[in-house]
């Protein structure tokens, strides 16, 4: 466990706690994006450049922005203040416990947990070729799905435009 | 002999490192690499502000700033002192922490992008395996900074500006990435260093820059349009929209924070121009093989200045687009063309080299361009009009 | 972005515009036409003769007190649209430049912070006593007192008038000379005619028609008698 | 729309209300606590805003960036012009008219002089009429050049067209300065003529300027007239229908861009305009682009008028000697003098009670009246369009607020 891992871990845990505890939803999202950045840093530290950078690009660049937009569009301009504890705290707690137990079970059931063997960094080229050879069918399927979603989004946007213009 | 001026900064760095104890070697090396970038690019920002004001002045039949120092050379310095000494006003209702962090984050993100930029032979800060990806990933953080600035000011104008900026940046990030994908396809690498090295070879005296291929040329044009939008430059400067929403997301900033936004924006512009040079214009390679005696970093900055001048020239000429037109342009023209360009680039790879390949690809690019233009034209119903006259 | 006619290329108008700005950019290094900046404190455009700014009072000769043409008729005070002129008429009469006894202003103030440089005071003055100055920079440290010009600040010599408006001043001088000559001949004729002296005859301003005929740049003060409260 | 809580109708940008009916206004409650207020954004554009042409303010309610309500607020530059005029002599009002539309002071002088001349039954000498036409058309040139510059500046062309326009305007102002002594507040015309005659060599200078001017028009045309971005920004934006233009008393280039053949130079043929051959350009769409182009073409026509006037100008007196400038007392009566000012129909309505000051003095300001349709033009468009539309209306706050 290196110092940098500790720093990143503290950052992730701290910002996640802040994301849950802060009262202003925008602040929550902003701290959450720190978490995303921290996770990306973890990936980078493990030598997984591609995954780490994609993490930043997708989560910080797209997901956080989307969340922020959604909150901004729906809440009052004066700023909606959330309570720290939700009314459905019990449900949340149950969900959290469920998720945690599933994750914990997954981690513990794998032999990886104890192993710290040095893994050579995976280059982008390797990812690319494995995607194109081993996993070409899933890749194409996902591509098709996303293209359909993209076209659908454009169609929806176009229809709305015709209504107004 | 020709190697020495080319590598002068690399040699200098290693010479300096010789005086540093080996225990802090890694840190010293990093500092020695980062520090010049942190100095050179803000300096370039200062030069560019002056160049822009002078250039715009000349375009507009004016002299531009010429009062501070000889020919107004100290103007950036005066501007800097002014913005440093100005009162830093934070709106009463603003979210102080976020308001403070936004310009910082913006500048940090803008600086990070330079890490993968090869400004000369052996002069990239890090040779990341996924360098191009890193660049775009860092670019997406800028959006967050812009949002923070717009939202934390609690001003309606800055909110409008932030909404415009984010919508624009997200929309143009897609064509920006897609336009650069063709280069990655051809080079077979995401590393900026590799991409440049692949272009720095010569046939006869002509280099193998990607801009000299049909798909590369189209890619370059699309990339530059998208880059203009990404860096909020005219005619895509709607997020600032001086005459509409006054200054957009940084309307409530003053003094040095305002200057930081300015800095961040220009750094972003340099970085995207730098990546365009890296991807399409052969990075630090000389345009003719006989010109390789000029140091590589000089070529890089020469190309950068040329692109900056293009930006200034365009700014001096064109009016601003409207939000919906901007979006339509991205989704209806740039995006399809970028996708089509990828097909052409694939075709190029599988055809035999020669003039035939060149012309087939060029033809295949021009046809959809005209078809798309004609379709858009029909939809928009724009025309040069004729007017009747009453006697 | 799209085309307006089928034959036009993508962005042709934009290219044309870019070419035009490039022409102007390089033109600014070659042609004076395309670099119109005048660097003000060092370079100044020669002032046009007809330029006007704030009014001043003309005096003949060298003594601003004695030579003041103003006879305190207060027409300008009344006609001034923003009412920025303030005159106090003297109780006694003093001889003017030609020796004729006239009233004179004991106080003549112009508040140039109110004055709108309209030149109406000049137009209505029957005695060619108030004219427009060309000085335009009056930096002061106070907004009010320093911009209230009194008689001494306002009085400027006829030579100065000649200097700033040569054409107009010569015409005015010619008109005044003609007027005085006419008055002198009339007075001489009146003196020669009879011993029964009628000093009131000199009170009216004769010869205005001559004055207006002499020049077209000066509006004829055609209603001097009507305007004077005497 | 009887109640404030009627359902919000979507304003249709292309449809303009027919004659006589009030334009449909969406009822938007803008109280800060209502649920609707969170959906809409109410912003105040102005009185300090880079493109409101002075101290004009628009209270705009936005849905996203779409305008659903626009309330113009003016009066920040109110100077009590009309009331002051009722305490000043007829001559004393002349310099005040300069300050109405401070970009074109000579046409303001002209409209006022025309009204007083009608009131007093004054003849104007031939030469003075020519001088009036020359200065008036020069004013039109510089006003239109300026306006095109402002409009493009508002659309974000970073000052270049504006600087080119100002370069030409300076030349006109130089001419005005050497003629009238002032660059903007000319105070030049008088009842029954002009204040001073043309100085020696002035006409030659004016001719030289006029010979150069078409070069500027060509340059401007190359720079932006067929620019795709400009066309996209302006075509089919802010369409003013012919009907609305008539029912709202729109005049000037704005009305002509909507296809209304109404030019007072032709309709009234005041002064000596009947002697010149010129054409009145008419638009067919009534959008911002047409308003832009109509002004552009009008400059070409003004050049033609100027060429003819400068060729034909006779020698002679410049002032009707029968008119007393001071203590001018017209007979009791009323008169309305109007001219085609660069911005539209500029009229002065005067009532005389036989004394030296007007009993009633009223200005018909084209800027204000053309501005009344602003909301109709802007509804359903977005913020960027509002700026372009406002710019194309051509207002000067000095005239709007008076």
Explain this structure to me?
- The complex is a heterotetramer of chains A (165), B (391), C (230) and D (402).
- Chain A has 165 residues and is an all-alpha fold.
- Chain A is built from 6 helices and no strands.
- In chain A, helix 1 runs antiparallel to helix 2 and helix 2 runs antiparallel to helix 3.
- Chain B is mainly α.
- Chain B has one domain.
- In chain B, a hairpin with a 2-residue loop joins strand 1 and strand 2.
- The longest helix of chain B has 35 residues.
- In chain B, 51% of the residues are buried.
- Chain C has 230 residues and is an alpha+beta fold.
- In chain C, the strands form 3 sheets. In chain C, strands 6-1-8 form a 3-stranded mixed sheet. Chain C has a 3-stranded antiparallel sheet with strand order 2-5-7. Chain C has a two-stranded antiparallel ribbon with strand order 3-4.
- Chain C has a domain of 115 residues: Alpha-Beta Plaits (2-Layer Sandwich).
- Helices cover 34% and strands 13% of the residues of chain C.
- Chain D has 16 helices and 9 strands.
- In chain D, the strands form 3 sheets. Chain D has a 3-stranded antiparallel sheet.
- In chain D, a hairpin with a 2-residue loop joins strand 4 and strand 5.
- In chain D, helix 5 packs antiparallel against helix 12 and helix 7 runs antiparallel to helix 12.
- The longest helix of chain D has 29 residues.
- The N terminus of chain D is likely disordered.
- Chains B and C meet through helix 3, helix 12, helix 13 and helix 14 of B and helix 1 of C.
């Amino acid at each position: 466990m290196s110092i940098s891992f500790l720093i990143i871990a503290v950052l992730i845990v701290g910002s996640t706690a802040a994301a849950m505890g802060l009262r202003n939803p925008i602040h929550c999202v902003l701290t959450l994006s720190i978490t995303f950045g921290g996770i990306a840093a973890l990936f980078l530290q493990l030598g997984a450049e591609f995954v780490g950078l994609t993490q930043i690009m997708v989560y910080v660049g797209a997901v956080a922005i989307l969340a922020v937009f959604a909150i901004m569009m729906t809440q009052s301009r004066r700023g909606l203040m959330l309570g720290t504890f939700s009314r459905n705290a019990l449900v949340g707690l149950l969900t959290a416990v469920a998720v945690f137990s599933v994750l914990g079970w997954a981690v513990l059931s794998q032999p990886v947990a104890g192993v710290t063997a040095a893994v050579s960094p995976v280059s982008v080229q390797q990812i690319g070729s494995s995607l194109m050879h081993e996993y070409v069918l899933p890749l194409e399927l996902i591509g098709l799905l996303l293209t359909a979603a993209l076209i659908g989004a454009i169609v929806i946007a176009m229809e709305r435009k015709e209504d107004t213009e | 002999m020709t190697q020495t001026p080319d590598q002068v900064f690399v040699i200098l760095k290693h010479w300096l490192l010789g005086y540093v104890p080996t225990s802090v070697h890694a840190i010293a090396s990093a500092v020695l690499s980062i520090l010049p970038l942190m100095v050179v690019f803000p300096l370039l920002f200062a030069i560019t502000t002056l160049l822009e004001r002078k250039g715009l002045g000349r375009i507009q039949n004016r002299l531009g700033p010429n009062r501070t120092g000889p020919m107004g050379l100290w103007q950036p310095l005066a501007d800097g002192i002014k913005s440093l000494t100005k009162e830093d006003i934070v709106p009463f209702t603003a979210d102080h922490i976020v308001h403070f962090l936004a310009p910082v984050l913006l500048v940090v993100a803008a600086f990070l992008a330079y890490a993968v930029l090869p400004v000369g032979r052996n002069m990239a800060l890090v040779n990341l395996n996924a360098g191009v990806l890193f660049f775009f990933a860092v670019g997406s953080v800028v959006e967050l900074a812009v949002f923070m600035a717009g939202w934390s000011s609690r001003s309606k104008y800055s909110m409008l500006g932030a909404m415009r900026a984010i919508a624009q940046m997200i929309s143009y990030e897609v064509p920006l990435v897609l336009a650069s994908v063709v280069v990655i396809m051809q080079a077979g690498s995401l590393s900026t260093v590799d991409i440049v090295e692949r272009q720095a070879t010569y046939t006869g005296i002509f280099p193998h820059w990607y801009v000299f291929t049909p798909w590369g040329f189209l890619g370059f044009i699309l990339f530059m349009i998208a880059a203009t939008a990404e860096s909020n430059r005219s005619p895509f400067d709607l997020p600032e929209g001086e005459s509409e929403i006054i200054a957009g997301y940084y309307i409530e900033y003053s003094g040095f924070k305002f200057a930081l936004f300015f800095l961040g924006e220009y750094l972003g512009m340099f970085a995207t121009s730098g990546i365009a040079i890296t991807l399409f214009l052969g990075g630090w390679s000389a345009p003719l093989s006989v010109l390789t005696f000029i140091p590589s970093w000089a070529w890089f900055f020469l190309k950068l200045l040329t692109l900056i001048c293009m930006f200034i020239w365009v700014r001096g000429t064109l009016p601003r687009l409207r939000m919906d037109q901007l979006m339509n342009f991205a989704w209806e023209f740039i995006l399809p063309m970028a996708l089509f360009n990828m097909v052409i680039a694939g075709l190029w790879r599988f055809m035999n080299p020669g003039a035939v390949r060149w012309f087939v690809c060029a033809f295949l690019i021009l046809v959809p361009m005209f078809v798309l233009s004609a379709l858009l034209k029909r939809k928009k119903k724009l025309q040069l009009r004729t007017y009747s006259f009453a006697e | 972005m799209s085309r307006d006619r089928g034959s036009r290329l993508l962005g042709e108008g934009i290219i044309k515009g870019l070419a035009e700005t490039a022409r102007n950019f390089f033109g600014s290094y070659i042609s004076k036409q395309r670099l119109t900046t005048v660097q003000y404190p060092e370079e100044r455009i020669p002032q046009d003769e007809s330029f006007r700014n704030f009014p001043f009072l003309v005096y003949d000769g060298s003594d601003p007190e004695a030579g003041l043409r103003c006879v305190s008729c207060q027409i300008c005070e009344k006609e001034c649209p923003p009412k920025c002129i303030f005159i106090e008429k003297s109780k006694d009469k003093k001889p003017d430049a030609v020796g004729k006894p006239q009233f004179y202003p004991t106080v003549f103030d112009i508040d140039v912070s109110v004055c709108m440089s309209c030149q109406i005071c000049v137009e209505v003055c029957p005695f060619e006593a108030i004219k427009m100055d060309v000085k335009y920079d009056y930096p002061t440290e106070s907004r009010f007192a320093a911009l209230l010009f009194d008689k001494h600040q306002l009085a400027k010599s006829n030579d100065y008038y000649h200097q700033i408006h040569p054409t107009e001043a010569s015409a005015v001088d010619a008109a005044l000379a003609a007027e005085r000559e006419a008055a002198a001949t009339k007075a001489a004729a009146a003196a020669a005619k009879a011993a029964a002296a009628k000093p009131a005859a000199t009170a009216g301003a004769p010869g205005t028609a001559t004055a207006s005929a002499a020049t077209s740049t000066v509006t004829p003060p055609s209603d001097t008698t009507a305007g004077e409260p005497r | 729309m009887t109640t404030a809580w009627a359902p919000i109708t979507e304003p249709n940008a292309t449809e303009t209300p027919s004659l006589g009916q009030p334009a449909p206004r969406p009822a938007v409650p803008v109280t800060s606590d209502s649920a609707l207020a969170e959906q809409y954004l109410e912003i105040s554009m102005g009185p300090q805003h880079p493109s409101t042409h002075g101290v004009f303010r628009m209270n705009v309610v936005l849905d996203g960036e779409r305008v659903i309500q626009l309330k113009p607020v003016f009066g920040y530059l109110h100077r009590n012009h009309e009331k002051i005029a009722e305490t000043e002599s007829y001559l004393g009002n002349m310099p005040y008219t300069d300050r109405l539309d401070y970009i074109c002071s000579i046409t303001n002088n002209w409209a006022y002089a025309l009204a007083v001349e009608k009131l007093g039954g004054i003849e104007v000498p031939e030469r003075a009429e020519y001088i009036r036409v020359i200065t008036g058309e020069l004013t039109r040139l510089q006003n239109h050049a300026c306006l095109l510059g402002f409009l493009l500046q508002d659309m974000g062309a970073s000052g270049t067209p504006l600087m080119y326009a100002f370069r030409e305007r300076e030349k006109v102002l130089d001419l005005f300065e050497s003629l009238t002594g002032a660059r903007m507040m000319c105070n030049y015309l008088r009842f029954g003529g002009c204040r001073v005659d043309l100085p020696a060599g002035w006409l030659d200078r004016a001719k030289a300027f006029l010979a150069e001017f078409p070069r500027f028009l060509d340059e401007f045309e190359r720079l932006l007239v067929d620019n795709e971005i400009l066309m996209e920004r302006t075509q089919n934006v802010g369409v003013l229908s012919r009907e609305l233009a008539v029912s709202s008393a729109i005049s000037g280039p704005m009305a002509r861009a909507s296809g209304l053949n109404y030019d007072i130079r032709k309709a009234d043929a005041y002064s000596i305009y009947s002697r010149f051959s010129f054409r009145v350009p008419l638009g067919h769409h009534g959008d911002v682009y047409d308003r832009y182009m109509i002004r552009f073409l009008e400059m070409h026509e003004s050049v033609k008028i100027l060429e003819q006037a400068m060729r034909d100008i006779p020698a002679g007196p410049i002032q009707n000697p029968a008119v007393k400038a001071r203590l001018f007392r017209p007979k009791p009566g009323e008169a309305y003098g109007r001219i085609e000012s660069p911005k539209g129909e500029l009229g002065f309505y005067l009532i005389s009670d036989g004394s030296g000051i007007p009993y009633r003095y009223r200005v018909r300001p084209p800027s204000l009246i053309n501005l009344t349709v602003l909301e109709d033009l802007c509804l359903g468009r977005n913020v960027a369009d509002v700026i372009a539309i406002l710019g194309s209306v051509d207002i000067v706050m000095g005239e709007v607020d008076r």
